[in-house]
Amino acid sequence: MLLPIRHINFFVVAMLLISSCDIESKKKDENLIQSVDFDLEAIKKRGKIILLTENSQSTYFLYRNQIRGFDYELIRAFAKHLGVKVEVKLLDDVDRMFHMLNSGEGDIIASNLTITKSRLNAVNFTTPVYQTRQVLAQRKFSRERPDSVLTLIQDTLGLNQIPIWVHRYSSFYERLKEIEKNTGKLMLIHEAPGEISTDDLLRLTNEGEIPSTITDENLALMATVDYSDLDFSLPLTEKQNIAWAVRKNASQLQLALNTWLEKKATKSKLSSTFEKYFGKEILERPNMAWSLPQMSPGAISPYDSLFKMYAPEIGWDWRMLAALSFQESRFNPNARSWSGASGLMQLMPETAIRFGCDSTPSPDCSVKAGVKYLKYLQGMWRKRVPNPEERNKFILASYNVGQGHIIDAQNLARELGMQDTIWDGHVAEALLLKQQEKYYNLPVVKHGYCHAKEPYHFVGKILAIFEHYKSSGN
C-alpha cells in the first residue's frame, strides 16, 4: 500500500507548497533576462572564474579541511589551465541559478545539469561531462510498518499512482510532463521550492515524509549508502547528457571549455574523477569491512612498537592509537583513500607535510605526524570540551572529517538547545543535521554541507575497537 498523503508531516508540506504561481512566473522571467556581456577575456583580466554550484557530496563540499567535489575539482583544473583562480558561489535556490548566471553573479554553472530544450532558451551548454539516467526514488517499506513491503511502481505507466515531488525547473519535472503527455495520464506532481535540495527530497522520501522523488542514477548510487529504505530500480529515461552551463553570449568561454574537455589529458581526468565520486568505492567506503579485527597472539599489529612510542605524547593508551590506525588503513602502510589520504594514519597530503612528512609518509613518519595532528586537535578542543573522555570523541570526529564541521555541529547543538560539550545524543545528532540544507545554511554553520554519517559512526567504531583491544589483554 502506498503512503497516504495524510501521513506527510504538515510542516514539510507547508514548506514544499510555499511558492505561488506568481512567484514561479517571476522566477521564469528572471531566468530569461538579458545576459551581461562578460566573456573569456574579461574573466582572464579579472583573474578568476566564478563557479555557481550546490553544496552537496557530488559537487562541492569540505572534507578533512580540503575542498572536494566532482564539479569543483574539474572546474579548478580548467581554471589552472586558464591561469586564473576559482571563486565559488553556492546556490541556495536552484530555481534562480540561470538568473544568477545571466545577471553576472557567476560564469559557469556546474551542478548536475541535464541538457534540455527548455534550458537552451536560457543558456548554452558545454560538451557533456558525463551521461546518466533519471530514476524514480520510492520507499521499499511503509514508515508505519517497517516489516511490510510497499507495492512499488514497476514502469512509467504506473507513475500517475504516486505523488512525486520535484523542482519546477528541473529536468525531472520536464520528464514527468513529457510522460504525462505521452500517456494521457495526469501526474501527481508536487513542486518543491528551490530552497530545498535534491538530497533533502531523497531524505524526506527515505523518512516517509513524502512518497517519492526523482534523481540521477549516479547520484542514486551515492544515496544508496545513506538511504537504504529507497528503491531506485525504475529508470525514467535513457542516458542523458550532463554538462556545464554558460551565458549564451559567452561564446569564447564555451569554446575554451569545449576545447579543454576534448583534450586527451582532460578526458582521462574526467574518467578518474567520475570514478572517484560515483564509482563502486562510494558504496564500499562507508561500509569498509566493519567487524572487530583479528589479532595475532601477543600483538595487535606489526606496528605496535610505533603506537607505543608515540601515544604517550598525547596521553593516550597506545591501543587507542592502534584502533584509529586500524579503522583508517587496516594497518596497510600503502593504503590510499578516494580523497587522497595515505599511509597508516590516512593523512591528507597537506596535513602530512604540515606535520613533518612528505605527502606519502613512511609508517614511522605517518604515526609520528598523525600524533602531532592529534596533539593539535587536543589543544584546539581543550577549552571547548572540558571532560577528557568527551573531548576524545570530538577529536576523533575532527580527525575523520575536519574540525570545521565539528565546530559547526557544536555551534548548531548550542543553537538548538542541546548540550554542546556532549557527543552522543547531542553534538553527534547536530552533526547529522548538517546533511540538511535548512541547517547547513544557518548563520552559525560556517562550513556547509557535511556527509555526516561517516564521522557519526567513525567515533563509535574507534571506541569499540579500543575496548576490543583492551579486553584481549594485549
Keywords:
three-stranded antiparallel β-sheet; alpha/beta; six-stranded mixed β-sheet; 474 residues; 3 domains; D-Maltodextrin-Binding Protein, domain 2; single chain; Lysozyme; 20 helices
Write the SSE topology:
Blueprint: H1 10-16, H2 21-31, H3 40-46, E1 48-53, E2 61-63, E3 66-68, H4 70-82, E4 85-90, H5 97-102, E5 108-114, E6 124-125, E7 130-132, E8 134-139, E9 164-167, H6 171-183, E10 189-192, H7 198-206, E11 212-216, H8 217-226, E12 230-235, E13 240-246, H9 251-261, H10 264-278, H11 281-284, H12 304-310, H13 318-329, H14 349-354, H15 363-381, H16 388-401, H17 403-415, H18 423-433, H19 437-440, H20 453-471
Parallel strand pairs: 1-4, 1-5, 9-10
Antiparallel strand pairs: 2-3, 5-13, 6-13, 7-13, 8-11, 8-12
Helix pairs in contact: 12-13, 13-20, 15-16, 16-17, 16-20, 17-18
Low-confidence stretches: 1-28, 283-289
How many individual domains?
3
Please name the CATH architecture of the largest domain. Answer: Orthogonal Bundle
Quickly give the structural class: alpha/beta
Beta-strand content bin: 5-15%
Distance between the termini: 54 Å
Radius of gyration: 24 Å
Largest sheet: 6 strands, mixed
Helix content: 40-55%
Kindly report the CATH topology of the largest domain: Lysozyme
Q: Which geometry do the CA atoms define?
A: globular
State mean pLDDT (0 to 100 scale). Answer: 88
Given the structure, what is the number of helices? 20
CATH class of the largest domain: Mainly Alpha
